[in-house]
Amino acid sequence: MSALKPTQVHPLPIGSGGNALKQQMNQTNTLLTMLNAQANANTKYDPAVPQPITNSIIIENFCSGPSMLMVIGGLLIVYGIVSK
Q1: CA-based, 20 to 30 A from 61: which of 26, 29, 67, 79?
Q2: Distance of alpha carbon 15 from its chain centroid, rounded?
Q3: Residue 58: its pLDDT value, please?
């Protein structure tokens, strides 16, 4: 079992800018830190991630095959010749 850990908000190195902008950036930084801490706390009671059934693969097809691309290119060339 993992214990919950306290989280400290790291200050932002804010330089020039208006006072309202600095306050807004610090509030956003605090909110993001709290959301990150809540997300980590929520994983304490989550079940373990199951192993995938199949291996993941990446398929990047532009079309069904290179022959289909050649047929479409040929048809466009023929259309260009006929339309003149």
Answers
A1: 79
A2: 30
A3: 85
State pLDDT tens for residues 20-73.
Answer: 888 888 889 889 999 998 888 888 888 888 898 999 888 776 666 667 778 888
The answer, as to whether pTM is greater than 0.70, is no
Q: 44-60 burial, b for 16+ CB within 10 Å, e for fewer?
A: eeeeeeeeeeeeeeeee
- The residues, any chain, with a CB within 8 Å of residue 33's CB and separated by 6 or more, are 7, 9, 10
From its phi and psi, is residue 21 left (phi > 0), alpha (psi between -120 and 50) or beta?
alpha
Q: What is the DSSP string of 4-53?
A: P----PPPP---SS-HHHHHHHHHHHHHHHHHHHHHHHHTTSSPPPPPPS
N residues, the chain: 84
